[in-house]
Structure formats: structure tokens, C-alpha cells
Amino acid sequence: MQIYKDTRMILDSNGEEMQKGVEEFLDTSSHIIANETIGHFSVKKDCPKLAFWATQCMKRESVSKALADPNKIYELFIAYRKKAGVEN
């Protein structure tokens, strides 16, 4: 699981390696809205501390500018699912 891998990289390292883990984790976080909507679950409900941290990070201009728009990722996921025949 990518989130676990990124979290371990953050916890088990420092310097550039830790920064790489943070960046990869935040990139994964931009997929949360799509995954929650399609998978019918809530990160905020199931992992409130993780959701709070991701929300705080997204409030930083440098972070929000560097990541893809979560709504666009959701649209891409839906398009992929339609193409794969999983969604109408």
C-alpha cells in the first residue's frame, strides 16, 4: 500500500529521503477524494488525524500548487472506470 510505504519513509528517515516521502504521500493524498467517492468510505471518519494533517498541508500554497486538483483526478478515475466498463 502506497500510503504505508510513504509513511514509513517519513518515519524512518530524515533529510532528503524524508522530504521525498512527504512529497509522495501528499501526491497520494490528492487521490483521496476520488477514492473516497468511488469506494464509498471516509478518510475523515476512519482516519481523522490523517485527514486533518492532509487538510492542513493542502492549506499551504506551496503544497496546493504542487499537487493535482483532486476533482480533476476524480474525473480521470471516472473516465478510466467507464473505459474499463466498470461504470456507466
TrEMBL record:
Top-level taxon in the UniProt lineage: Eukaryota
Protein name: Uncharacterized protein
